[in-house]
Amino acid sequence: MRKSREIHLTLLAAVALSMTACRDEHHDCVDAQSRKLPDSSCQVGAPGAHYVYGGSSGGHVGDYVIGGSVTRGGFGGTGEAGGGGGDE
Q1: Is residue 11 assigned to a domain?
Q2: Cα gap 51→68, rounded to integer Å
Q3: Does the model's pTM come out above 0.90?
């Protein structure tokens, strides 16, 4: 009976993990100073433009994006994006 429970719990954990990994994660296109750019800048490969996943900002072009990661979520994600206040 114990082995059956372990299998069910393992299966349940795997399903929960796969569900959280597949959701559409918020991303912003930013420049080297973590300022929000139009998505088109990242799509055409503008110099210094890259996506930051999961960060927060005011939502307008030119706003700083704080936090997030330059790689998508999941195991082994690296590249924390700092971005803090700036010289305004």
Answers
A1: no
A2: 10
A3: no
